Amino acid sequence: MESKKLSKVVSTKLTAEDYDLCRKIAREYYINEKISSPSVSELTRLVLYRMLDTYRRKNIPSDAQHPSTFRLSKLPGN
Q1: Alpha-carbon span 23 to 25, nearest angstrom
Q2: What is the 3-state secondary structure (H, E, C) of 22-76?
Q3: Distance between CA atoms of 25 and 58, rounded to whole angstroms?
Q4: pTM of the predicted protein model
Q5: Cα distances (Å, whole numbers) of residue 6 to 3, 20, 26, 28, 61
Q6: Which long-range contacts does 4-13 make (Cβ < 8 Å, 24+ apart)?
Q7: 55 contacts 72 by C-beta, under 8 angstroms
Q8: How many CA atoms lie within 13 Å of 2's alpha carbon, on the beta-carbon side?
Q9: Quick one: DSSP state of residue 8?
Q10: End-to-end CA, the chain
Q11: What is the pLDDT of residues 17-37, one digit of tens each?
């Protein structure tokens, strides 16, 4: 599969605590050579790639569930 430059930006708001946790995880992943730089952006790319890859491997047709009805599990405290 040929990689293409991303043309869309994914944006979200995180609490300061969640952002700090992402920075910590990114550093750990970088040290363990799972990502190429210790940045939250690089960690985000990895997480999205893995999520999309898992979804694709399940062979679920893209129209099986409308995106507005797709929900991730609720996180503790939310």
Answers
A1: 6
A2: HHHHHHHHHHCCCCCCCCHHHHHHHHHHHHHHHHHHCCCCCCCCCHHHCCCCCCC
A3: 27
A4: 0.63
A5: 9, 25, 20, 25, 23
A6: 10/44, 10/48
A7: no
A8: 2
A9: S
A10: 37
A11: 999 999 999 999 999 999 999
Per residue in 26-65, pLDDT (tens digit) is 999 999 999 999 999 999 989 988 998 888 888 766 555 5
Do 30 and 37 form a contact (C-beta atoms < 8 A)?
yes
Q: Are 35 and 29 spatial neighbours (Cβ–Cβ below 8 Å)?
A: yes
Q: Which two tokens stand for residue 60?
A: 């679920």
Cα three-residue angle 65-74-26, rounded to 5 degrees:
100
Determine contact, residues 22/40, Cβ cutoff 8 Å. Answer: yes
Token pair, residue 72, equals: 């991730």
Q: What is the Cα–Cα distance from 34 to 46, expressed in whole angstroms?
A: 9
